[in-house]
């Protein structure tokens, strides 16, 4: 029996030690510091980006290190979730242990303190007065009332005990701040969708890695349940198209989140500032049920999401949605500047004839607003920028596997009366664009330049030597057919611009030039679809946190106890002790005012001891 009792006592002691550890301030502060460091990493380092972006940014070694630590998706890692869960457990333990005592302190306030307890207060005053006990008690009570206290009196024999306090509900500040931390962290855990993480960990849910698969071909193991309690996915939706699922990046792959409705993008609108930066972009969206019933219709713009049945749809980005481009293809040196035609949508890869080259249409921009100085235009304070009009970006792959990225502007620019077709190129994504300015002829076409280039190459094959006379003579023959109405000044200006273009084409990486002749533009809206049911709890938790901090800082708890004794000669003796847990310097000045008022009423200090905080500790 004794052994069983000893075992139970040891178990209670162990549980008590565990409770003390979990509810300790040191553990809570350590967890908060770890959580802050992890959150800073998640804020500074862009999250849930393709792994190829991180590998290019950090290099192979640090890319592998950061991937192992889970820094590319901090908020989905097990260690981050563990920190948040442990903080919830620690704070809940602290609240459970201390709440009964805090409630007891709010309800109960002793009117009498022993002399040793009074002398142990931060501020202590001992005085004698010729006034009788009742008069001195009333005088002190009046001082306390003037300071906002509501003193209470207890009489025992020759002694009277006076007690007063302010900030009765100060302890609620601690309670509210701790409860707020529990609510916010618990709601964040709920939003983190722990069941999905567990499914990934056990292997029942496996991210897909092929980003080119259509939705119908994605493996079922990459699909999350349609009634998933919390998720955040993205989708790029072209105008006129409908989607019933979104995608969530997970490591080097993605998961598919089916939606309980279908999203249809009717139209997309965008407005620009004069600097070329987007001013506002809006998606006109219709939500349909799986049976085709209209559930909701409206506009989504930045910071103005559409909400339906606990799901929020945010406008996050925009891009090209598969615009149809019609292009003219000029082979450098082709006879008479002959051109072909290519047509395709952004995102497609086209074959450049039988040359072995392929053209991957990467993007289309409807507007290209740049500073006037960037294209050699004179400064104009009223119009500091110029719109270069539509452009498209494409990647040319040669038969050997090499490639170069090209950026072509549709509208020519004008310099000193001569029009120029602008063609940018770079051999690597990390390089800056280099530009070729090809002079344009009649109707803004580069056909005249291509014919001139072909004629010069033919003359070189026939053995002609390069000279200003040759350049002029060859151009005269070409211009007689293509631009017979041109003046001598126009011809001279074109020849000079052509020679400069020929020099810049020396490093041009591909043997042809594409120009944009027509386009059928289509926008695509980048939408973020979020279901975070814990968000409302987080908001209420933030309210509780702010209220608790306000109470802690602006509702200090001040306590005053006094013992007034009747002496044998009819005089009285006062022992006063007081303290506060905030604004200690202000309270010290208030206590000194009470002493001065009592002295003015004839009381004389026997001894006075006031323990003041050092100034550098703060109030």
TrEMBL record:
Superkingdom to which the source organism belongs: Bacteria
Keywords: Cytochrome c-type biogenesis, Membrane, Transmembrane, Transmembrane helix
Domain ResB-like: 25-591
GO CC annotations on file: membrane
Transmembrane annotation, as ranges: 77-95, 172-190, 537-556
Localization (cell): Membrane
InterPro entries in the cross-refs: Cyt_c_bgen_Ccs1/CcsB/ResB, ResB-like_domain
Membrane topology: Multi-pass membrane protein
Keyword match Chaperone: no
Gene Ontology BP annotations: cytochrome complex assembly
Name recorded for this polypeptide: Cytochrome c-type biogenesis protein Ccs1/ResB
Species this protein is from: Acidithiobacillus caldus (strain SM-1)
């Amino acid at each position: 029996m004794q052994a069983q009792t000893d075992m139970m006592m040891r178990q209670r002691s162990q549980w008590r030690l565990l409770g003390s550890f979990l509810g300790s301030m040191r553990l809570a502060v350590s967890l908060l510091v770890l959580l802050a460091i992890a959150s800073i990493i998640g804020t500074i380092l862009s999250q849930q980006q393709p792994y190829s972006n991180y590998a290019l940014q950090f290099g192979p070694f640090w890319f592998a290190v950061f991937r192992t630590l889970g820094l590319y998706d901090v908020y989905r890692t097990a260690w981050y979730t563990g920190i948040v869960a442990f903080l919830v457990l620690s704070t809940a333990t602290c609240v459970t242990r201390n709440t009964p005592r805090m409630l007891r302190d709010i309800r109960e306030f002793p009117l009498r303190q022993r002399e040793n307890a009074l002398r142990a207060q931060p501020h202590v005053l001992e005085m004698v007065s010729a006034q009788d006990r009742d008069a001195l008690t009333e005088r002190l009570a009046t001082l306390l009332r003037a300071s906002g206290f509501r003193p209470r009196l207890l009489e025992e024999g020759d002694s009277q005990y006076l007690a007063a306090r302010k900030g009765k509900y100060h302890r609620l500040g601690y309670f509210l701040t701790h409860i707020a931390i529990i609510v916010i962290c618990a709601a964040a855990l709920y939003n983190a969708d722990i069941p999905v993480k567990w499914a990934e960990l056990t292997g029942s849910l496996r991210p897909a890695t092929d980003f080119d698969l259509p939705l119908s071909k994605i493996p079922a193991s990459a699909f999350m349940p349609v009634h998933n309690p919390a998720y955040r996915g993205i989708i790029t939706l072209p105008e006129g198209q409908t989607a019933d699922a979104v995608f969530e990046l997970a490591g080097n792959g993605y998961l598919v989140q089916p939606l309980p409705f279908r999203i249809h993008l009717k139209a997309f609108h965008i407005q620009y500032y004069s600097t070329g930066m987007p001013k506002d972009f809006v998606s006109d969206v219709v939500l349909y049920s799986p049976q085709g019933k209209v559930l909701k219709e409206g506009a989504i713009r930045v910071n103005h999401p559409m909400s339906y049945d606990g799901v929020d749809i945010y406008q996050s980005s925009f891009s090209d949605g598969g615009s149809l481009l019609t292009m003219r293809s000029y082979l450098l040196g082709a006879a008479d500047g002959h051109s072909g035609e290519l047509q395709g949508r952004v995102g497609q890869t086209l074959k450049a004839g039988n040359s072995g080259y392929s053209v991957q249409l990467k993007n289309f921009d409807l507007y290209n607003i740049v500073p006037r100085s960037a294209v050699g235009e004179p400064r104009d304070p009223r119009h500091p920028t110029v719109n270069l009009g539509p452009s498209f970006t494409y990647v040319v792959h040669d038969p050997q596997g090499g490639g170069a990225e090209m950026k072509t502007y549709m509208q020519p620019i004008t310099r000193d009366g001569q029009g120029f077709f602008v063609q940018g190129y770079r051999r690597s994504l990390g390089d800056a664009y280099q530009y070729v300015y090809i002079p344009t002829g009649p109707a803004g076409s580069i056909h005249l330049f291509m014919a001139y280039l072909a004629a010069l190459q033919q003359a070189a094959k026939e053995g002609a030597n390069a000279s200003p006379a040759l350049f002029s003579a060859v151009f005269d023959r070409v211009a007689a057919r293509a631009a017979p109405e041109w003046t001598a000044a126009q011809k001279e200006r074109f020849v000079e611009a052509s020679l400069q273009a020929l020099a810049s084409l020396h490093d041009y990486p591909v043997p042809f030039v594409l120009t944009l002749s027509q386009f059928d533009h289509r926008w695509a809206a980048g939408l973020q679809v979020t279901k975070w049911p814990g968000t409302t709890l987080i908001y209420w938790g933030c309210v509780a946190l702010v209220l608790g901090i306000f109470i802690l800082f602006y509702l200090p708890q001040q306590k005053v106890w006094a013992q007034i004794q009747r002496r044998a000669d009819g005089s009285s003796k006062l022992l006063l002790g007081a303290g506060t847990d905030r604004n200690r310097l202000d309270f010290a000045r208030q206590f000194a005012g009470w002493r001065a008022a009592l002295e003015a009423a004839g009381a004389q200090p026997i001894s006075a001891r006031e323990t003041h905080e050092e100034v550098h500790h703060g109030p």
